[in-house]
Amino acid sequence: MDMNKRIKNYWEGEAAVYSEGIEEELMGFQRKAWREIILENSPDYLKENEALNILDIGTGPGFFPIILSEAGHNVTAIDITENMIRYAKENLKKEGLTAQLQTMNSQSLDFKDNTFDMAICRNITWTLDDPYSAYQEWFRVLKPGGKLLIFDACWYLYLFDEELKKKHEENQKRIKEKYLRDIHEHKDPEEGDALGKSLFMSDKYRPQWDLKALIEIGFSKVFATVDITKRVWDDFGRELNGDTPQFMVGGEK
Predict the structure, then answer these.
(1) Domain range for 221
(2) Could you give the number of structural domains in the chain?
(3) DSSP states of 1-49 as a string?
(4) Could you tell me if 129 and 200 are in contact, meaning their C-beta atoms sit under 8 angstroms apart?
(5) Which uninterrupted H or E stretch holds 141?
(6) Which of 28, 65, 68, 200 has a 20 to 30 A CA-CA distance from 22?
(7) Would the pLDDT of 218 be above 90?
(8) Domain holding 135: CATH number?
(9) Residues 58, 69, 155, CA angle at the centre, nearest 5°?
(10) Phi, psi angles (nearest 5°) of residue 204
(11) DSSP 234
(12) Nearest residue to 38 via CA among 66, 79, 61, 78
């Protein structure tokens, strides 16, 4: 089985768990916090209150389409897994909102050049078998002056960095004793760990790798914030993932 198909199969089985997770976020402060951090990085060419055409890549159960369509923006959301798209449709329906949802490979987009004002994604780039090619595709579909925003973390870097490994093991032990659970709870944890050892991004120091790639691809401006956890994670999330902080990296075409 090739890596891309293996990744797809894994996330098909994780859809229900992740849908439960975004339901909690939608009821918390994260609903507003994520919308604010995205929209404050919108393209400079847009007029005040003008609707954005946004591509949400690897939408999962539809968190970004909900919070952004709610704000009046036009959202197209894609995911390689049918189950994620199915949950996204159900979650949007519950909220009384609409977005264009499609099953699609984020590394080979079925969109014309210069289509979107923004391309955004959260916790998806670490799963890609060829992120450089994906970033080239995302650059292609952005309008001149459009913005790319990538939110992710170095989830498996501890497997390749001894200092991070020590911190991860200490945190895992503490979480296990305090909450009787693992840091990350997946339907298939063994396959998740196996993928973590073999995925392209797992041993990369980020967002440094991303910044270099975006410059090479042709983004005219690149930027990064190495830790946005205080803005978008609650206390429990920071406790679980303190050794793998969420970063934001992006570029302007």
Answers:
(1) 3-252
(2) 1
(3) --HHHHHHHHHHHHHHHHHHHHHHHHTSTHHHHHHHHHHTT--TTSPTT
(4) yes
(5) helix 131-141
(6) 200
(7) yes
(8) 3.40.50.150
(9) 30
(10) -90, 140
(11) -
(12) 66
